[in-house]
Amino acid sequence: MTQTETQSENKLKTKDEVKVAVIACARSVNLEGELSATKLNGVSNCDVIQVPCSGMIQPRMIEAAFNAGADGVIAMGCQIGDCHFREGNKFCRERLLGQRPPMIKKTVPKRRLKGLWMSEVQVEDFKARVEDFKGYVAEQLVEEQKGN
Amino acid sequence: MLTSFVRSGQKVILRIEDILNKVFSSEQNLLYYHGAMPNFCMWMLFLSGLLLFAYYTPTLEAAYQSVEYITNKLPYGDVIRGIHRYAADAMLLTVILHALRVYFTDRYREYRLIAWYSGVALSVFMLIIGVSGYILVWDERSFIIVTKITDFLGSLPFIGSSLASAFLNGEVISNYTMSMSFFLHTGTSFALLVLLWVHYMRISRPVVNVTWAIGSLISGIILLFAGLFPAISGPEAKFTVEPSYFDIDWFYLWLFPLIDAVGNIGAWLVLIAGITLVTLLPNFVRNHDKEPASVSKDHCVGCRLCSIDCPYEAIYMAPRNDGSKYKEIAVVIDDRCAECGLCVGACNFDAIELPNYKSPQVMDDIRIALQS
Ligand code: HEM
Ligand code: SF4
Ligand code: SF4
Q: Which residues in chain A touch residue B32, judged by CB atoms under 8 angstroms apart?
């Protein structure tokens, strides 16, 4: 899908309508009992897909999420400095910042892509941050419309 | 039961870290430098030890006076001596913190065994360095330590008497005993470096350096203690006087109250049981069946990215001569693999996969989730 196609699909949405995909390290925020299948309880339109470590998140997984209709994508790992596998979240962050290969494609809307680094115990914090991000994505979609 | 105990320990650690992150930011979170902090203390010890080494004389007649000279006459000698004393305590404290953290966050078994076993050996070595260090001062406490250690070693069946005379370096306390203690102190210190090399063997890019801020904090605390509670000697040891002074350093000299309480054989049993228990901790948990990453010959282009990113040195690049146009192929050493998937994140060709989490499957999951 090209960038223009993605954007035309993403025409003005309210914060609640914004669709977010979280590709999350299974060891970061503890989501036991917080998910119905992949949907995050208490937050609208938020899907969580877990992987063993945020270091496993490939740029192509992020592209896949945008292409499948996500308005915003969050890559989530543990607090930077702590990673069960020592360096996974650092590498993930470097990829998000474009500092480590493989690089994220230019067509990915970087402003609607976010890295989030939280530990197992920060469940409530996490939900609040997702809500904030949804608001930010909604504004961002408006900006992108204006830009065209 | 053990698992739930460890899980609650982990929650406590994560909560403390969460608070530290909020106060100091994650870049300056002490607990994220759990391995680097003892390392920093060790280098402080080497440096201050080098300066002490320059003036110290390991003989019965001169040892005490040389330490007094360092403390009272040498400019800043007392500070250097204080740094050496308190950096040793700080090193042990941070090592304990480090060991507790890796234990409670479940980062000590399976592919981390080499680090765990060498860690146990490092702590035993630290005990030897600590005890022998207190002999070098040659005050009354040193005298007591030498006699007690001689008895302690001698109490072992069969090898006891030879160990005791090896420690005394003869049959009585002499200058040779001082040489032996000096050797035990400095020789074992250098052996730490060899052990640390083993400790880091399976760890790519170990975090060995603290930040400037944390380094300054640790040095500041050590200096503060050196200033407030100067390291001083007790009365000089004399063969004609029954020694009585024994100020205890609970970090390194706890063995002696232990011997007083349970006797030599009892103390051996406690020591051996303790070391065995800690060494065997990884065996108390059942490891899950391993599903290491595997490389697809058809997809790998030999770009090396996975072998660079692997945090446990589990991937090497092998030359390939199977007619492929690529020169190298990634090879996973199954035993070392942590099943973390960092290699998957690094590979742009779907050439390396975790059998349980294949990346095409993850992408399908993403699509299905978003369409539901
Ligand atoms: C001289 C004392 C020691 C020093 C300087 C030291 C230093 C370090 C350092 C720098 C790391 C790498 C941390 C990282 O980058 O992730 C490490 C890892 C480790 N250490 Fe130590 N260590 C010491 C003693 C110990 C002790 C006493 C134990 C436990 C008995 C221990 C167990 C471990 C384990 C299991 C790891 C692997 C952690 C992981 O893979 O995440 N260490 N150590
Ligand atoms: S990253 Fe992928 S393509 Fe590159 S060497 Fe590793 S397995 Fe092969
Ligand atoms: S999953 Fe990959 S990166 Fe992780 S330890 Fe195994 S080979 Fe290394």
A: 79, 81-82
